[in-house]
Write a structure and sequence with these properties.
heterodimer, A: alpha/beta, FAD/NAD(P)-binding domain, Enolase-like, domain 1, 3 domains, five-stranded antiparallel sheet, 14 helices, B: FAD/NAD(P)-binding domain, 25 strands, globular, glutathione-disulfide reductase (NADPH) activity (chain B), thioredoxin-disulfide reductase (NADPH) activity (chain B), NADP (chain B), Thioredoxin/glutathione_Rdtase (chain B)
Chain lengths: ~450, ~500
């Protein structure tokens, strides 16, 4: 869309290869269809379930039995996504960007072949190319995985309630999904190979796990599934999962209605003909290395988003990178995407917002004696009346002593973590120090004032 | 002779307690006096001051109760099957809130004890510059002498005593949170009886705006009560207060109208009478139509401003100067009054925002300067605030109007956006008034002068940005900050349409 502003002739190819179970979706990519958007809406549904319980303490009265209807929620969510898909098509049309629902792959220099659903092939040439094909969920590679397991690609449009669910994985995807499924009243178990939320601050990661465990989610730690078999067909059916310990020979079995795999995502770069035009990819991860201007090793081919090597897999980062790239190519701008201090939020039942260094990374980079960690547990005012946990919400900032106690890491665990973190991220970008933080008056009573 | 105490704090509220506890940390002998004169309706409360007992805390909790009512409605769209009808019971909420407040009163007493601060539940007044005397509830007289004295007695709601029946039959925010029974059909009257000065308008919404009446009306509506706000738009040096001077407050009020709160605009009450049914008959003048109208209500709440609590202190005896118009104590940048060893913090002080965190910070810094060899003064600039109306409004820095006044409209750039919170989509909620506005200097650096946000969790959103503004944040720096997706706060980092351009500021796309 940005390129079209500069009167360039632009074409977008988008194609969704159906999941093993046949799920597909419209224009917009992962975020819109099977990522951020449906995830946050279902997380909201779960939060509302909690709100219902709180409401009673605040004087609201309604029947004891409150049940959740998966289909009502999923239909509403899918309708909203449909409106976004439609919105994108209209936006592209209005900006005179040619859109084709076809699978693109390079066949030679400056040439791409587009194959649509019916198998019709067309060739297109362009001066420049931008690869933004993103990723898809990884499968375990064990018997029964593709036949019987689902992934996040399927979950958000599942036409039946998943029932008793086993979530395999310890990524934020796994924890967020497990979180909202449990919040909707389902029996949820998470099977974890080793640690939770690899790459995130581990002190916080363990608090998140603890909170989830205390709120009804079962964790099976240090096991990996080795086999999934179907006991009974159905929507949902019944599956038997066999798992092996990673620290011994123990084998366990369990029965679930649904098995959700959330063990990682693979870049969609292997089958788009990159070898034909010489674009180098990391053979192990499939990701594309680019320079700080998002350029691949082939000068006229650029890449952005989840497929980039060593960059964050986040929607706003991709959007920002894409816009700035075009402004540099056609608008004469020089601003590059700033990948430092990008804030994120994990929408687990107890939300986690972060910006900057984790405690481990800060210690690694600066040395333990050079950093100061300030922290505090807090009790959101809204949790007092309904007697919710008074020692779970937590905030910590990490400061670089040598640099005027500059804040290099911000972490908050509590409600509305994303809303709280955003502003602090802006302040960190302005080089905020501990003194400035102390000198800022809090808004009372909100969680962020902690 | 030598004084009994190093520090005597008169008033056990946000400012007073913070100051006392901080001073005690330095090993000083500290005493706190706190006393609550019952309201005309007889309401009383414990240690902790306005915020804890009849301000921020119960207000936010009742606001939360109302928000949960909306959540119940949203929940049905998200698949939760809730039987209709859904009822709200005032007494369950009020008791829960009151119990929590009482636990805070208790907590404060324990804290004072732990920090070895002596607490007297007496109403004190100066008998000489270093001496305060007062009577305990039992009638015993207590005399206390101190080297230094901090006055932090705060304020109480005003009654429009010129209106017949106002004192006898009306209540104020002092009473609302402690009602045991539902207030029923309620009329909230906002009358600005103070003089306005431009400064007050821009520092914080709380000083002049119908905050209290809007916040209370908001949660009363939210829990299902028939609620009306009577408001007279005061001509303010030629400007209409609600519609032009404050774009943001008019958006907030518009939302409340669609939310179900009734507004009686341009009306002034003339009398309140009690009917046989025990209901209250209110008569008012409609200044627009020139007619007289009346209606009956179960409760009438006055929200006509607050008066500083200085009457019984005997300040004239010791020479502490107050502002003759407002009655507030005049202090300098170090919180010192006209008498060298007497200081004041919090709502009682002239020209300061009436906010808890401000009082706490000022109190702490004062204690550090008095006893801790610090020289740090309180910075009253860029103090963020939030109004907890049904659709919340958070802000920090200058209002657009004040910025135009200070710098000229050619020298400022206003970026704005109408956005829709993701959670409103499935819930089918109206997001018409969800709005963000950032006021910047137009010159090259584009420093941010003010940020305004209307939407859910406004306080949480604004807090971090307030920090950024304290660090001198500029528009380019904000644009370099990546958004967190999906949140409402990220819309701040995406602001790019200016008011000057006249373009449609509605956010589109994902």
């Amino acid at each position: 869309q940005e390129a079209a502003k500069y009167d360039k002739k632009v074409m977008v190819l988008d194609f969704v290869t159906p999941t093993p179970l046949g799920t597909s979706w419209g224009l917009g990519g992962t975020c819109v269809n099977v990522g951020c958007i449906p995830k946050k809406l279902m997380h909201q549904a779960a939060l509302l379930g909690q709100a219902l319980q709180d409401a009673r303490k605040f004087g609201w009265q309604f029947t004891e039995e409150v049940k959740h209807n998966w289909m009502t929620m999923t239909e509403s969510v899918q309708n909203y996504i449909g409106s976004l898909n439609w919105g994108y098509r209209v936006a592209l049309r209005e900006k005179k960007v040619t859109y084709e629902n076809a699978y693109g792959e390079f066949v030679g220099p400056h040439t791409v072949k587009a194959t649509n659903k019916r198998g019709v092939e067309k060739l297109y040439t362009a001066k420049r190319f931008l690869i933004a094909t993103g990723e898809r969920p990884r499968y375990l590679g064990i018997p029964g995985d593709k036949e019987y397991c689902i992934s996040s690609d399927d979950l958000f449009s599942l036409p039946y309630c998943p029932g008793k669910t086993l979530v395999v994985g310890a990524s934020y995807v796994a924890l967020e999904c497990a979180g909202f499924l449990a919040g909707l009243g389902l029996d949820v178990t998470v099977m974890v190979r080793s640690i939770l939320l690899r790459g995130f601050d581990q002190d916080i990661a363990s608090k998140i796990g603890e909170y989830m465990e205390e709120h009804g989610i079962n964790f099976i730690k240090q096991f990996v599934p080795i086999k999934v078999e179907q006991i009974e067909e159905g929507t949902p059916g019944r599956l038997k999962v066999t798992a092996q310990s990673t620290v011994g020979n123990q084998i366990i079995e369990g029965e679930y209605n649904t098995v959700l795999l959330a063990i990682g995502r693979d870049a969609c770069t292997r089958k788009i003909g990159l070898d034909k035009v010489g674009v180098k990819i990391n053979e192990k991860t499939g990701k594309i290395p680019v320079n700080d201007e998002e350029q691949t090793n082939v000068p006229y081919i650029y890449a952005i988003g989840d497929i980039l090597q060593d960059k964050l897999e986040l929607t706003p980062v991709a959007i920002q990178a894409g816009r700035l790239l075009i402004r540099r190519l056609y608008g004469g701008a020089t601003t590059k995407c700033d990948y430092v201090n990008v804030p994120t939020t994990v929408f687990t039942p107890l939300e986690y917002g972060a910006c900057g260094y984790s405690e481990e990374r800060a210690v690694e980079e600066f040395g333990e004696e050079n950093i100061e960690v300030y922290h505090s547990y807090f009790w959101p005012l809204e949790w007092t009346v309904p007697s919710r946990d008074n020692n779970k919400c937590y905030a910590k900032i990490i400061c670089n002593i040598k640099d005027n106690e500059r804040v290099i890491g911000f972490h908050v665990l509590g409600p509305n973590a994303g809303e709280v973190t955003q502003g602090f991220a802006a302040a960190i970008k302005c080089g905020m120090t501990k003194e400035q933080l102390d000198g800022t008056i809090g808004i009372h009573p909100v969680c962020a004032e902690v | 002779g030598k004084s009994e105490y190093d520090l005597l704090v008169v008033g056990g509220g946000s400012g007073g307690l913070a100051c006392a506890k901080e001073a005690a940390q330095f090993g000083r002998k500290v005493a706190v006096l706190d006393y609550v004169e019952p309201s005309p309706q007889g309401t009383q409360w414990g240690l902790g001051g306005t915020c804890v007992n009849v301000g921020c805390i119960p207000k936010k909790l009742m606001h939360q109760a109302a928000l949960l009512g909306s959540a119940l409605k949203d929940a049905q769209h998200y698949g939760w099957n809730i039987s209709q009808p859904v009822q709200h019971t005032w007494s369950v909420m009020a008791q829960a809130v009151q119990n929590y407040v009482k636990s805070l009163n208790w907590g404060h007493r324990v804290q004072l004890q732990d920090k070895k601060v002596k607490y007297f539940n007496i109403k004190g007044s100066f008998s000489d510059p270093h001496t305060i005397r007062g009577l305990t509830k039992a009638g015993k007289e207590i005399v206390i002498t101190a080297e230094k004295i901090v006055i932090a007695t705060g304020g109480r709601p005003k009654y429009p005593t010129h209106i017949a029946g106002a004192l006898e039959y009306g209540i104020t925010s002092d009473d609302l949170f402690w009602l045991k029974e539902s207030p029923g059909k309620t009329l909230l009257v906002h009358l600005s009886l103070l003089h306005f000065c431009e400064d007050v308008v821009c520092i914080s919404l709380t000083d002049i705006s119908p905050d209290v009446s809007l916040e209370c009306a908001g949660f009363l509506t939210g829990i299902g009560l028939d609620t009306t706000v009577m408001i007279r738009s005061i001509p303010l040096r030629g400007f209409d207060q609600v519609s032009r001077k404050h774009q943001m407050s008019s958006l907030v009020a518009k939302h409340m109208e669609s939310y179900g709160t009734k507004f009686l605009k341009k009306c002034i009450p003339t009398k309140v009478e009690k009917l046989e049914s025990n209901k209250l008959q209110v008569t008012w003048k409609n200044t627009d139509l020139g007619t007289e109208e009346s209606d009956s209500f179960d409760t009438v709440m006055w929200a006509v401003g607050r008066v500083p609590d200085t009457k019984t202190l005997n300040l004239e005896t010791v020479g502490v100067k107050t502002n003759p118009e407002t009655g507030k104590i005049i202090v300098d940048a170090s919180e010192a009054t006209s008498v060298p060893h007497i200081y004041a913090v919090g709502d009682i002080t002239e020209g300061r925002p009436e906010l808890t965190p401000t009082a706490i910070a000022a109190g702490k810094l004062l204690a550090r300067r008095l006893f801790g060899q610090s020289s740090e003064l309180m910075d009253y600039d860029n103090i963020p605030t939030t109004v907890f109306t049904p659709l919340e409004y958070g802000c920090v820095g200058l209002s657009e109007e004040k910025a135009v006044q200070c710098y000229g409209s050619d020298n400022i750039e206003v970026f704005h956006a109408y956005y829709k919170p993701l959670e409103f989509t499935v819930a089918e909620r109206d997001a018409t008034q969800c709005y963000i506005k950032m006021v910047c200097l137009r010159e090259s650096e584009q420093r941010i002068l003010g940020l305004h946000f209307i939407g859910p969790n406004a306080g949480e959103v604004i807090q971090g940005f307030a920090l950024g503004i304290k660090c001198g944040a500029t528009y380019p720096q904000l644009m370099k900050t990546i958004g967190i997706h999906p949140t409402c706060a990220e819309e701040v980092t995406k602001l790019h349409i200016t008011k000057r351009s006249g373009l449609d500021a509605t956010v589109t796309g994902c």
